[in-house]
Amino acid sequence: MPKPLLVEAGEFKRSAKAAADLSGMALVKTGAFGAKSIDEAARTVDFVISTASEDRDNDVISLSGWQLGNYRKNPVVLWAHDSSDLPVGKSLSETVDGKALHSTCQFATKDENP
C-alpha cells in the first residue's frame, strides 16, 4: 500500500471543493489532548483523544459518529499517525462519555520499540 500524501486541513478542503481524488491523501490534524491518568508500572496512560468541540479548522466530529469497530481489530497507537514506523503502543480500551472519546494506551517497552 503506498504511503498517503499528508496534507493540512486547508489543502484537503481545497482539493475536496475542486472534486479532486482524495483517496491518496491523509488529513493531518493536531490538537492538545491531555493525559487523564498515568500508571508508570503498567506503562498506561488514559487520554482524551477527541471531543465534540469545534477545532481550529472549524470542524466538529459528533461523539456519536465514531465507528471504532475496524480500529478495535488492531488498535495500534502510532507516533504522529505515522504508519511507516513501529507503533508506540496499543489502545486497551476506547470509551465515549457525554463529553469526550477516551482511550487507555499501553506504551511499548524499549525492547518492543527502541
What do these coordinates show?
The chain is mainly beta. The protein folds into two domains: 1-30, no CATH class; 32-107, no CATH class. The chain has helices at 9-17, 69-73, and strands at residues 5-7, 25-27, 35-39, 44-51, 76-77, 89-96, 100-107. The strands form two sheets. The protein has a five-stranded antiparallel beta sheet with strand order 3-4-7-6-5, with no helix packed on it.
**N-C termini distance:** 25 Å
Task: Point out poorly predicted stretches.
Answer: none
Total DSSP helices: 2
Q: Could you report the average pLDDT, rounded to the nearest whole number?
A: 84
Major sheet strand order: 3-4-7-6-5
Approximate shape: globular
Strand content: 25-35%
Largest sheet: 5 strands, antiparallel
Instruction: Estimate the helix proportion, in percent.
Output: 10-25%
Per DSSP E runs of 2 or more residues, the count of β-strands stands at 7
Q: What are the secondary-structure elements, in order, as H or E?
A: EHEEEHEEE
Could you tell me the radius of gyration in angstroms?
Answer: 16 Å
Total number of domains = 2
Which secondary-structure class do the elements indicate?
Answer: mainly beta
Short note summarizing the structure:
The protein has 114 residues and is mainly beta.
What is the fold's blueprint, element by element?
Blueprint: E1 5-7, H1 9-17, E2 25-27, E3 35-39, E4 44-51, H2 69-73, E5 76-77, E6 89-96, E7 100-107
Parallel strand pairs: 1-2
Antiparallel strand pairs: 3-4, 4-7, 5-6, 6-7
